[in-house]
Amino acid sequence: MRYDFMKIGIIGGGISGLTLAWYLQKAGVPYDLFEADTRPGGNLHSLPTPEGYLLEVGPNSLQMSTELEELLADLALTDQIQDAAAVSQHRYVLRDGRYQVLPGSPPSLLTNGFFSLKAKWQLLKEFRTPAAPLDPQETVAHFFRRRFGPEIVDYAVNPFMAGIYAGDPEQLLIHKTFPQLAALEQQFGSVLRGFAKTSKGAGRRRIVTLKKGIQTIADALAARLSGYQAGTTVTAISRAADGTYQLELKGPQGLEAAPGYSHLALALPTYAVAPLLQPLFPQAAAALAAVHYPPMSAVYSAYDRAAVAHPLNGFGALNPKVEGTYAAGSIWTSSIYPNRVPAGQVLFTTFVGGAQYEDAARQPEEAQKAAVHTELSKLYGITGAPRWQFRYSWPRSIPQFDQRIVGAHAAAAELEAERIVAVANWRAGVGVPDCVRHARRTAEQLAAEQ
Fold this sequence. Notes:
- It is a single chain.
- The longest helix has 17 residues, at 432-448.
- By secondary structure, the protein is of the alpha/beta class.
- The chain has helices at residues 15-27, 66-74, 106-111, 117-125, 140-148, 150-165, 174-177, 179-188, 191-198, 215-224, 270-277, 282-289, 333-336, 358-361, 365-380, 403-416, 425-428, 432-448, and strands at residues 8-11, 31-35, 46-48, 54-56, 62-63, 81-83, 91-95, 98-101, 207-210, 228-230, 233-239, 245-251, 254-257, 263-266, 296-304, 316-318, 329-332, 345-353, 388-394, 420-422.
- It folds into three domains: 8-43 and 213-292 and 400-448, 3-Layer(bba) Sandwich (FAD/NAD(P)-binding domain); 115-198, Orthogonal Bundle (protoporphyrinogen ix oxidase, domain 3), CATH 1.10.3110; 294-394, Polyamine Oxidase, Chain A, domain 2 (Alpha-Beta Complex).
- The chain is built from 18 helices and 20 strands.
- Helices cover 38% and strands 21% of the residues.
- The strands form five sheets. The protein has a seven-stranded mixed β-sheet with strand order 8-7-16-17-18-15-19. Strands 10-2-1-14-20 form a five-stranded parallel β-sheet. It has a three-stranded antiparallel β-sheet with strand order 5-9-6.
C-alpha cells in the first residue's frame, strides 16, 4: 500500500532503531528517532576505565555478516575493524572438572577425544535418523537429544545456550531459536546431511570488534542521523481521528507532543513497549509483557599473567550445568583482543546468571565478585588476588525465545496491520547481525510503501 503522507516515529535508539533510521534516511523517508538515554546504542556499550581496560558491557564481539560489513563501510568504519586473534577459533568447555577444547566441526566431533564413543556413534546415526513431524512446541534440548543424544545436549548445547543466549535449552524453542536447523531436518532428513549440502565453501565467519569498542558503531550512526533526538523519552502513544499516531514526549524541555506519524517502529525491549501499547492494544501489550528477560551480571577480573597457570589459548570457556559451577562461563578478553588490557595482565569476562543461574544473578556485587574469583582460581590455577575487578549488572538481559515469545511474535505480526513494526532483538534475533539485517529489510519495506 502507498500513502499520501508517510513519517516514521522510531522509539528506541539501540542498534536496531539506529540502523532502521539510517536506511530510512538514505531512502529519503522522513522519520524521528527518540532515545531516552543520552548515550546511543542501548546494549552496544563500550566502557574505557581509568585503570586502562576497555570493557564491552554489551556484545563482546561481532560475527561479521554481509549486512554488517556493508553498514560499517557506509559509516566509513572499515579501517576501524579489528579481527579477533587467531587463538579465538578454539573454544573450551568444562568436563570432569577441567577445560577441554570443544570440537569445532562435525568431522572433528568424531576424531576429537572430547565426546565418548557412544556419543560419536549417535552422531553417525543422525545421518540415518528420519525426520520427525515439525513440532512448534519442540525445545532446543529435545531436538538435539532426539537427533544427537543426551551427551551432546549436556556438554555442547547446554553450555552454548547458557553462555551465548543466557538461556535454558529445555525451555528455548528450536523453531524460534534455530529455525534453520529445524528446516534442515525437514528438507534433508538429517541435520548433518543438510549442513554438508548447504555449507560447501562456507568458511568460519569473521569475529571482529572495533578498535575503540563496539560503541563506535552506535556513535557513528547517531552522529549522521538528522532525526535523532537523544535524552527524549516517549511516555505515551495515542491515535488521532485521522489515524495518525501521536507521541507524548519527556525531553530536556519537559513534556511536549510530537507531530503525527503514519507508522511507528518499536525498537525497545518488550517490557518497555508493553506499557506504551496498553491503552490502544491491550492484548498485544499483555503478550509482550510476558516475555522473559532473565537477570545477568558480567564480572571482569584482571590478574597478572604470571599468576594464571592456564595458557588461555582460545576465545573462552563455557561451563555446562551438569558440572555444577557458579558461573555460566568466561570470555578470555585479553586473549581475543590483547590491546584491551595493560601489559602483563589477563582479563576474564565472566557471566553470572541467565535462565539457568537466576539465583546467582541476584546476589550482591561483592558476593558475585568473590565467588567468581574463587571459581576462576580453582579452574585456571590462579594464585593470589585479582589486580582489579568490576561488575556490570542487567536486571533484565536477553529475551528468551521460549514459549512466551510465540505470543509476542504473533502480536507483532498483528500490529503490522496497524502500521506498527517491531525491530528490536526480541523480534529480529538476539545477535547484532540479526538486528542489522532485520532493521535494514524493514526500512526497505517501509520505503517501498511511499
